[in-house]
C-alpha cells in the first residue's frame, strides 16, 4: 500500500463489490475516504487498507442528505488536512425498486433519483472545488468517475425508478464533463452492463452459470484506475463493460 | 369544434405555445382538460375552445404536488363523468435554470426533476388507469404523449438541472412504453430540438432570424395528433423535430 | 386518385409491402414512378394506380448499377416532362443475408452495402437536384424519405451484411439532412422495427401470432405522407415504428 | 522490447500516428506484423522495433483487395510460424473525401466503405480464425480492436463518404462482438473524437492551439493495450476518447 501522498481520494458507495475493489485500488496511490450509509459496509475495508500500510477512513454518510454530506466533507477535510483531492468516485447504487408502474409509491419511484440524481449533485458539488484546485499539480488529471448501469441507456418495464435515476446521473455527468473537462477535470461515466460477482450474487443463475459470467469488481477497479490515469489529451467520457457471455 | 364525444383528453403544461396548439387540436375531437399552475395560462384557451363549440375546462394544478394532482383528477372525473380518457399529453416545461454547476442551489438543480421526473410520475399514475380502460373501445389507441427536448439526449455545460429532468422523463417514458405498449396504450416521446415560435421568443435571433427558423407549435400539435391516430400495429416511440435550418 | 399535378414522385424498392402502400398513397397526390429490379414487383401496382385514375409508370432498375439508374432517370424525365419532383422514397431492401460471419463470402457481405450504401448514393444523387429545384413552389417541402430497420441502430451476430448496409444508409441520410435541410429539402429516416404484414410473412409466428403483431404497410405509407407534409419549421429527421407488442 | 513470445499481433493501418504508437506498444509483448499500402509507412517503425530487441515485419497490403490481404496473411503465417495470434488492430483510415454531396463521384463516395467496410471484412475474416484458436491459452483474451471516429456516430454535411464507411465498420464490429464475444474473443471499438497529434497536424489550429488540444497517439496505444488486457468477465465494447478541450 501507498506511502504518504499529498493527495487523497474519495469513494462514495462502498460495499462488497465495486466500492471495495475501487477503494483497495486507489488506496495503493492515495489515502482514501470511504462513504456509505451503513458503517458495516466500510469498516472491514478500512481495516484492510490500514493494516496493509495504506490510509483509509470511513464516514457514515447518506449522500442524498445535504447535512450528512456536509458533515462528511468537514470530517474529510479535517482528516486529510493539507492534502488535495485527486479522485472522487461515485458508486452509489441506492435503493433498487422493481415493480409494475401502477404499484409504485411516489417514494419508491423517487428512490432512484434520490441516490443518483440528488445524491450525485451533492457529491459533485462537494468534490469539484477540490478537484479543480488539484488541476495544476495532481499526478494525473483530477477525476470524477461515475458508476452507471444498463438502465443508464434504456428504460425497462418495471424499472422506471432505477432508470430515471441513472438517466439523471448520466445527464449530470455529461453536463459536468462538458463544463469541467476544459478546466482539466476528467469526468467519466462507466456503463456496468451485467451482474457483479459478489457474495450476494454468487448463486444467481446469470448467463447459465458459466465461469466469468459475472463482472469481476477488481476489473472495474482497474478500469477506473485506467480512466484516472488517462492524460488530458485523451479523456474517455464513457465506456461500457460486460461479461463476454452477456447478451446486449 | 367537436360535438360531444364519449372520450376526453388532458393536456398538462399549457401556455402560449405547444400546450395551446395541442389543446386546440385535440379539442376538435374530444373535450379537453387543461392543467397549468397559473390560470392565466389556460383561461383564454378554455374560452376560445368553448366559444368555438368545443368543450374545455382549466384546472390550476402543480403537477409536482401529489395533492394538487389528486384534486385535479377528482375534478376532471366529476366534470367529464361518463367519459373515458383517450389521450393525455405531458407538456410540462418546469422552471428552467441555466447556471454554472457550482452556483446551483440544490433547489435549483432539482427544479428539472420536480417537473419532469416527479411531475410526470404523478401525471402518468393518474392517467394510465383511464387510458388502459379505454383500450377496448377508444377510436384510436389511447395515448400518453410526452414533450422532450434536445436536453433529453445530451447534457450540456450549465444545463444539468434541465437535462437531468428531461433524461429522467425519457427514462420513465421508455419504461412505460415497454410496460403499457403491449397492453394497447401508446406511449410516445417527442424530441423538440429548437426554439418554439411564440410571442416570448419572437425577437430571439434564432437561426439568423430566417423565416420558419423557429418551430411552429401548430405543427407540433399536428405531430401529436398524428401520433395519437397511429394504429397499434405501427406505434412510434420517439421522433425528433427541428426547423430546417437548425444545426444538429 | 389524383388529377394531373405539376409534381411527381418516385418510389424505389417496390414489392408487396411498404413500396406498394407508399406508391398508392403518394399517387393520390402526384404521378409516381416505381422502380424495382423485377417488373413483376411493380406491374400490378402500376395498373392499379392507373385504373383508379392516377398516373404511374414502372421502370426495371437496379439501384446499385450506375447505368441502370441513369437509364431510369432519363426515362422518368421523358415521361414526366414538365413536372417537378416533390418526393423521392428510398425503400430498397436488397439481398438479405444472415450467416455466421466466417461463412460469409465477400459478395454476400457486400450485398448489404450494394443496395443501401451504393444504391442509395446513386438514388440520392439522381433525385436531389430535382428536389432542390422544387423547393420554391412545391406544395410541401420536397422530401427524400428513407426506410431503415432495427439493424440501422445495432449490429447483431450473423447480421453484419445487412447492418453494415443499413448503418451506411443512415450515415448518408444524416449527412444529407444536415447538408440539404437548410436548403429546404426534407431528408427523413424511418426505423422500421418489426416484421411487415405482407403475404410472405402471413404465417410467420411473430409476436405470438397476435392480431396487429406485424406492421401494417399502409400505416408506414401514412407515416411517410405525414413526414412529406411537415412544414419546414418542423422537420422530423428520424422516427421509429413497431407493433405494440414488439419487444425493444 | 519483448523477448520471444508464442503469440504475435497484427496492426493494419500504420503511419505516423496511432498505428505507430500501437505497434510500439504491442511489440513490447508480442512480435508484430505491420500492414500498410505504402512501405514508407512502416519501414522505419519495423527498424525501430527490431533495433530495440523486439520483432516486427512489414507487409505492403491493400486491405480492400482480397488478393492483397490473402498474400499478406500467407506471409504472416510463414514468418510467425508456430506462433498464435493474440491481437489484431484495425486502424485503417482510408482515403478521406470531404465534398458537397452532389460533387462526389461514386468512386469518392465509396472510398469510405472500401477501407472501413470491405477492408475490415477482409481483415476480420483473416484474423478471427487465429484469434479463436488462441482463446484457450493466450495471456489475455484474444482481441480485435477497431479504430472509429466521430463520424462513426453521426453523419455531417460533406462527410457522407467517411461517415458511411465508419458507420459500416461500427455495425460490423458490433455484430462481431455479439457473435465472437461469447466464444472468448474481445471485439472492441474506440471512438477517436479529435485530431491526433502527429507531424502532419502539428500546425493545425485545433482547439485554439492549446497544449494537449490534440490526442496523443501514445495514449491511444495505452487504451488499446488496456482493452486487450481486460479479462473476459469485463469486456469493454466501446469507449470514446477526446482532448479535454474538445467540444462534443
Automatic annotation (TrEMBL), chains A, B, C, D:
Any Pfam family the entry gives: adh_short
InterPro entries linked: NAD(P)-bd_dom_sf, SDR_fam
Highest rank taxon of the organism: Eukaryota
Coiled coil: none
PANTHER family, per the entry: OXIDOREDUCTASE, SHORT CHAIN DEHYDROGENASE/REDUCTASE FAMILY (AFU_ORTHOLOGUE AFUA_5G14000) (PTHR43431), OXIDOREDUCTASE, SHORT CHAIN DEHYDROGENASE_REDUCTASE FAMILY (AFU_ORTHOLOGUE AFUA_5G14000) (PTHR43431:SF7)
Designated name of the protein: Short chain dehydrogenase/ reductase-like protein
Organism listed in the record: Hyaloscypha variabilis (strain UAMH 11265 / GT02V1 / F)
Lineage: Eukaryota, Fungi, Dikarya, Ascomycota, Pezizomycotina
Amino acid at each position: 500500500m501507498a506511502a504518504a501522498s499529498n493527495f487523497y481520494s474519495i469513494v462514495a458507495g462502498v460495499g462488497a463489490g465495486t466500492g471495495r475493489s475501487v477503494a483497495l485500488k486507489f488506496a495503493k496511490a492515495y489515502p482514501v475516504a470511504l462513504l456509505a450509509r451503513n458503517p458495516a459496509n466500510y469498516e472491514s475495508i478500512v481495516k484492510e487498507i490500514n493494516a496493509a500500510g495504506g490510509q483509509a477512513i470511513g464516514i457514515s454518510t447518506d449522500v442524498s442528505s445535504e447535512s450528512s454530506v456536509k458533515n462528511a466533507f468537514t470530517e474529510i477535510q479535517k482528516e486529510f488536512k493539507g492534502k488535495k483531492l485527486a479522485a472522487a468516485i461515485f458508486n452509489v447504487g441506492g435503493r433498487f425498486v422493481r415493480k409494475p408502474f401502477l404499484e409504485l409509491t411516489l417514494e419508491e419511484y423517487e428512490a432512484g433519483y434520490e441516490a443518483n440524481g440528488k445524491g450525485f449533485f451533492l457529491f459533485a458539488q462537494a468534490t469539484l472545488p477540490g478537484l479543480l484546485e488539484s488541476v495544476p499539480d495532481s499526478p494525473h488529471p483530477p477525476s470524477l468517475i461515475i458508476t452507471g448501469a444498463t438502465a443508464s441507456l434504456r428504460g425497462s418495464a418495471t424499472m422506471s425508478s432505477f432508470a430515471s435515476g441513472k438517466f439523471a446521473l448520466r445527464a449530470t455527468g455529461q453536463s459536468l464533463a462538458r463544463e469541467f473537462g476544459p478546466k482539466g477535470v476528467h469526468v467519466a461515466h462507466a456503463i456496468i452492463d451485467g451482474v457483479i460477482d459478489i457474495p450476494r450474487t454468487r448463486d444467481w443463475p446469470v448467463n447459465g452459470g458459466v465461469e466469468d459470467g459475472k463482472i469481476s469488481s477488481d476489473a472495474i477497479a482497474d478500469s477506473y484506475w485506467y480512466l484516472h490515469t488517462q492524460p488530458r489529451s485523451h479523456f474517455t467520457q464513457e465506456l461500457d463493460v460486460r461479461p463476454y457471455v452477456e447478451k446486449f
